[in-house]
Amino acid sequence: QAKEQGRNTYKIYDKAIHKDLTKKLELVKRLRHAVNKQQLTVYYQPKVELSSRRITGFEALVRWVDEDGSIIPPDQFIPLAEDTGLIIPISEYVMRESFLQLKQWHELGFTELSIAINISGKQLHLPDFADDVIEKVNEAKVPPSKVELELTEQVFIENIQSHTRFMHSVREYGMSLAIDDFGVGYSSLSYLKNFPVTSLKIDRSFVKDLPDNEDDATITQTIISLARNLNIQLVAEGIETEEQVEFLLYRECATGQGFLFSKPVPAQQVTQLLQQYNGLIPIQIA
Ligand code: C2E
Ligand code: MG
Ligand code: MG
Ligand code: MG
């Protein structure tokens, strides 16, 4: 009887795996189709100088526009894109599109604006990826100093020679390098010493419960002091309240990003926002 039960358990498990796989394959098929049919788009979220509310630049965030017009967020397809190699054409698209967009905003007179793009660890395994990025920057004729690459901690943990080479190549070319989601995972302070990093993005999870949560307040304060002492730029992610701005400003975190200022929006809306408010974020009075 035990044997019988075992077999049934196995069957159920097998079925679940099968269902999961089928779903995944279906999603891969749809994603491949979306990439071919250019059903991807880029949204932009402002980075804001907290003291002046001036927009200093944008983070490019990819979106998948489904057949019915609904928007599929990156968390639902980036991991799959990485596993299947589809991240390569997706990233080429995001780079080409967002660099050209930045060029347009520069031409409108907002020449100080920068663009940040997210790079996943998988991409750094590609031979010549640094050359690929540099080529895209050249094609769009944007100053490399206005391009920032956001890398997650995974990349630093792996600590592979090719990754380090990538970082030095893009830095030598004049681009900036940020550690994204800093503080989650296995943050090691040695990253800051061993890699040519120019900025840190404090993860949203630490900002979320500021200023009331004492642990988060301490952690944030510590990251801010650390960055200041090492002369590294700081961006706080996920700012949603004026109290958070006040906390961060008082502790001299210069830059922030979050729904309080703006959600990620299509390029056209960014252009409107820039022109209407001359590069400033209107202070929202709730
Ligand atoms: P990320 O790079 O940490 O991007 C920040 C995420 O936080 C974005 O989610 C943004 O919409 C969200 N966010 C910003 N401010 C707030 C806030 O005030 N409150 C809350 N609750 N959320 C906020 P999104 O666009 O869904 O992107 C999720 C992740 O997907 C990104 O995290 C990034 O790791 C990845 N991703 C997005 N676009 C790309 C891309 O083009 N290439 C690669 N490789 N990864 C991408
Ligand atoms: Mg990012
Ligand atoms: Mg982030
Ligand atoms: Mg984050």
TrEMBL record:
GO terms for molecular function: cyclic-guanylate-specific phosphodiesterase activity. The keyword Membrane applies. It comes from the Bacteria. The keyword Zinc-finger does not apply. Residues 24-278 form the EAL domain. Keywords: c-di-GMP, Membrane, Transmembrane, Transmembrane helix. This is cyclic-guanylate-specific phosphodiesterase.
